[in-house]
Amino acid sequence: MRRLSIKDMLAKIQAEEPFHAVSEDYSFTLKIDSYSYYICGAVHDGHQFRKELWANCLHTEYERWYEEDPATKQMVQSHPIVIAGCDSRFEYDLNRDPENAIYEDAWGKQLWKNSLKSETKERSLQKHHNFYRVVHALVSKIESKYGAAVVYDMHSYNWRRWDREVPVVNLGTSNIDNDRFSTFATSWSNDLSEIKLPNAITTTAAINDTFQGNGYFLKYITNHFNNTLVLATEFSKIYCHELEYIMYPEVVNSIEQELKLRLPKHATSFYQSFIDPK
């Protein structure tokens, strides 16, 4: 993996050059093995939290981890295009618009002892801006190359905070073009419901059960590109013990191996519907 400026990343995308890179400020990674018709994203995978914020933050390191989406990049790391955040959503949230990307409070608790200085916010918002410059160039390249693209927007959620039974996988589709794409959302949900997991986990999948797909990553791409479907795919944190701060690597690996088989097949069926719409 190389360290690249945003300018260099954009140039490589424009030239359709494969590369593995971390951004110059270490805020996100982008891996392009080949310019396929599908992209995987993990915007909340990051846990990095720059040191100048530590003393001013009221949330503990564990509280931040609890609300992040650990291992979501690992779940899709074998696919040809993967873009993932390195920074914690508690610094700035890539799944919120720029005006709301920096939290004042988080999950009912004030985040900062003292209000952030404007220059501190600007440093974070510049990273948010740069990420979306690259996202825009990447999706533009894929859609122009193939006529259509599908983005798998990977997340996780804390199932233990719900007081009812919730699905192992939830798809949020309220902000996609359901007239055109609902069939592919349904087929993706069905595929995910068949995933085999260890530790006696019974996989269930649902659409718009716990979350509806209201994130900025999905909305940004959907609003800027006519033929790109974004599937907000949320695994409940059955792959860790969210209260004890313990990861279950065998479950993460199983999800990765299942997605290695299922995700390309689904993406191919989506793409083929555009090149042969019979």
From TrEMBL:
Gene3D superfamilies: Zn-dependent exopeptidases. Pfam families: FGase. InterPro entries: N-FG_amidohydro (IPR007709). This is N-formylglutamate amidohydrolase. It comes from Aquimarina rubra. The lineage of its organism: Bacteria, Pseudomonadati, Bacteroidota, Flavobacteriia, Flavobacteriales.
